[in-house]
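Pipeline run #58 for the internal structure catalog. This entry was flagged by the ingest filter as a single-chain record with no existing model, so it goes straight to prediction. Upstream metadata was stripped on purpose; only the residue string is passed forward. Reviewer on rotation: M.T. Logging verbosity set to normal.
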Amino acid sequence: MADAGDTNHGFSTRAIHGGQHPDPTTGAVMPPVYLTSTYVQEAPGVHKGYEYSRSQNPTREALEASVASIEGGTHAVAFASGLAATHGVLSMLDAGDRVVIGHDVYGGTYRLLDQVMRRQGLLFDVVDTTDLAAVDAALATPAALVWFESPTNPLLHVSDVAAVCAKAKAAGAIAVVDNTFATPYLQNPLALGADIVVHSTTKYLGGHSDVVGGIAVTADDALAGRLRFLQNAIGAIPGPLDCFLVLRGIKTLAVRLERCCDSAETVAAWLAAHPRVNRVFYPGREDHPGHDVAKAQMRRFGGMVSFDLDADLETARHLASETHLFALAESLGGVESLLDHPASMTHGAVPRAERLKHGFTDGLLRLSVGLEDLDDLVGDLEQAFDKAFA
């Protein structure tokens, strides 16, 4: 049976077996869900490696070993949500430390830095990480950490992960990549030089819109020790059933992503040909400015497609309300297709002036392309366009 550190096996083998072994008591194939808060000790301080489930839980450990395996790390530290994982990473820093973040990141990441961590003394600056000269300029002032996404949420900008991470580390900063959109199946930032990779396990790793979680992965023992301490000290841990659900989702990650990529490519092409669409954001298209970089560092281009309507805010909101198969909902990466109007929903915390400065318009819509039949998805978009522009 493969284990978390066995790199001789292919991705799907590691996704199914990594960090998991049949239960020694019953032979159960899936790791048991250990719904316990505490563990009996043989004597004070003498136990089987488990004291209290905030600190250790066997189901959570199985999830952590699995994600470490597929992401190419040696340690993974699970949290109760993607934002809890983000908070855990940022909590490694001290008041007065400066963070450089990408100009197009998840709205919750921006909100956490702007409205929470700033009050605790962290400083942060926003930079376009697709522009390496801008990264150099930002790092001319000391920084403790560089945080970026590639592809980004929601504009699907692509940064040269290896180049940005190298610049961060040369400047003495921790390089962190949010790899939620790409997933470990499509991209492995640790292999490209990142110090820490963060995922919202709510999304593609869970894959079924039935669980919330987050995880941070690293190959650095010292960083892992700090994250493990903060996981326990802050206490924002996932429950064992949540961990079980993410483990279940990871087993089908590769086959789900292949279908999502296939469909997203066609949906992006359909949108690009539509007269009411100003621009399509999809790294798999040759007209995407980051296409060549994405092709070099990703296996395929993902299931996320954003597009800018030739329309005002209300028309965009109208179209977003007229789809049937594309459910109007936050989140992404599930088996069902979702549609998001970022300005009203996932990125509402980003000031409008800041959004517009970076090309993030009121007419931007984001699709998470799921596993439904492709003809049905295209038909759903077509009828929604017809109604919105009637």
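catalog note: The first helix runs from residue 11 to 17.
catalog note: Residues 1-5 have pLDDT under 50 and may be disordered.
status: ready for reviewer M.T.
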